Amino acid sequence: MTSNDTSSGLTLFTGAAVLLLIMWVPVYYVLHPGVNEYFMLSCIWIGIIYTTGIQSQKTTGYPVTLFPVFQGYIAVTGYTVLQETGFVISVFMGMLIHTVRIGETSRNCFLHSLKTTLICLLSLRITTLIFYQFRDRIFENEYLTAAALSGAVLIAVFLNQLFRFLIETFGLKGLKQAFIKYVKSVIYPGFFVLFLLPAALQTEELYSNVWEWNLIAGVVTILVIQTGLSILLDKARFSQSRTRFLEKELGKHSEILTSLDTPIEALRILANFWYQASEPEAVRVTWNNISLIYPTGFETTRTAPLSRKGKEGLILEVWPSPKTSLDKERIEIFILQTETVLKNLELRDSVFKSGWKCLEAMVYSLDMSDSRQTGYSKIVANIAKEIGREMGMPSNILEDIEMAAMLHLTAAILEKAEEDWHEAFSSDPVRIQFQLPPEVVEGIRHLTENYDGSGKPDNLRGKSIPAISRILSVSSNFAANLSNQSLDNAILELKRRAGLIYDPDIVEILENISVQKDRTAFSNYIT
After folding, report:
1. How many Å apart are CA 308 and CA 318, to the nearest integer?
2. Closest C-alpha among 310, 313, 315, 332 to residue 250
3. I want to staple 159 with a disulfide (CB 3.0 to 4.6 A). Which of 14, 54, 123, 360 is the partner?
């Protein structure tokens, strides 16, 4: 993790100003009779380095550290020049460890550590000065001592935040946020400083061995609490970051899936995603009777896979490798997303098939209005699709060709007025219940254009006529000729008008189809 704070806010001027303030604040070094100077130095040194070095942050940004506990303890119980020196060194070292741990640059590590050290030393001296004149009365009873310890922590944290705020902002902007951060930052040390209360009460007793044990117990307890707080906060922050990453990743996955047209595409994306993300030996996804495996050719009988089945029957199987890292929650959500898309695709396919049945019934009724045209539109659709396949058109265009062929008789009905056409096939979904693809509408509309430009409605010429229109023109007239002519004569009739009414390339394609196929088979196919 890299810190968001890229600037320490410490300049030569601000550093010198804080240093002058430190020198200006009077300090009274006091060592109580019950205190072993070197033992206290060792305990405080360890406590400050540890609580500063492994401090953590709430997801809202403010630090959680029990370091001010030791500031408050020193300010109340008193210290020497040696202990103050140890305090400075331990704060600097602790902050250096912390800034390196969170990924700061070398320069920022030094500047952040120096800034924190100067601020904490200044606040320590001021807090000590405040409590010095009350020190004799502080230890009269345990309640006053507890209040003094908590008060010292409150003042130390306040001064830490105040000086940090002044150095970083040079003004009153953000004062409210700084106060909120102070209130939140003082909660933990203000409470847990009471674990040092037994040691503080023993400082007035001459050569008390109990003091040492109380100090050890208090420091160890604080270190354990700091460890627990840091672990919990780091875990919470990791969980939040993971959740945000997961939401972003799921959003991308959902966006990709919703643009698909077939279940195979959805399965391929799911299999490929897990193969790339978890680095397994192989991945297999199964839906109904469709099964895809990455990489192809993997021998699935070598080892048993890890398997997860969705509520709708989608199965994801993973053959893990030493690098594989699987997240149960992510797997379940991705499977749910993919299943939703697959069910929607099935529903859409069902609706599409139902729509085609209705369309065929409508066209059949239209053909039945003239007994000579029974099944005529279906024949035109078969011929047009076969021409489209020979031209190498994709499946979605072939579907448009088939739909346009089934509806091509409406062109003659709607030729009477341009307004009638747009009213019937408007692209405005508010005006109609069933919206045709624009390619289908365009193909039917220009069905009566002639290749030499003599047709209507727009006198289009040659390849400027939509491909669907040119295919339908050849297919519909070929189907009509077959009703009273042989196959050869029907094609010959088209060739006579090729280049005038019909696209000669499409006529040639139709002729090649009839030659390549067995004549009887071709006649059965188109009828």
Report:
1. 9
2. 332
3. 123
Q: Are 67 and 94 in contact (CB under 8 A)?
A: yes
Residue type, 397: I
Pick the closest to residue 270 from 250, 289, 244, 297 (CA basis). Answer: 250
pLDDT value of position 417 = 38
CB-side neighbour CA atoms (13 Å) of 406? 19
Give residue for tokens 């499977």.
Answer: 335
Cβ atoms of 31 and 80 within 8 Å: the answer is yes
Q: Which residues of 455-478 are buried (b: 16+ CB within 10 A; e: fewer)?
A: beeeebeeeebbbbbbbbbbbbbb
Q: What is the 3-state secondary structure (H, E, C) of 123-149?
A: HHHHHHHHHHCCHHHHCCCHHHHHHHH
Using only C-alpha atoms, the chain has a radius of gyration, in whole angstroms, of 42
pTM score, two decimals? 0.48
Supply 212's token pair: 């040492």
Output b/e per residue, 395-409; b: 16+ Cβ within 10 A: eebbbbbbbbbbbbb
Q: Coil, strand or helix: which one is 75?
A: helix
pLDDT tens digits, one per residue of 336-350: 767 776 666 665 555
Q: Above 50 in pLDDT, residue 416?
A: no
The residue assigned the tokens 């953000």 is 174
> DSSP alpha helices (H): ranges in 80-174?
81-101, 106-132, 135-138, 142-169
- What is the rounded distance in angstroms from the CA atom of residue 376 to the CA atom of residue 479? 7
Residue recorded with tokens 């959500």: 333
Q: Give the Cα separation of 43 and 315 in Å (integer).
A: 58
* Cβ contacts of 5 within 8 Å, gap of 6 or more: 112
Please give the torsion angle defined by the CA atoms of residues 289, 293, 299 and 305, in that order, rounded to the nearest 10 degrees.
Answer: -90
| Average pLDDT of the segment spanning 176-190 | 78
User: Which domains can be identified in the chain, with CATH numbers?
Assistant: 12-242 (no CATH), 262-344 (no CATH), 370-526 (1.10.3210.10)
Positive or negative CA dihedral for 415, 418, 419, 423? positive
Phi and psi at 153, nearest 5°, equal -65, -45
| Pairing relationship of beta strands 290-294 and 56-57 according to DSSP bridges | unpaired
> In sequence order, what DSSP letters do the residues of 13-25 get, joined into one string?
HHHHHHHHHHHHS
Residues 6+ apart with CB under 8 A from 415: 448, 456, 457
Please state, in angstroms and rounded to a whole number, the distance separating the CA atoms of residues 212 and 208: 8
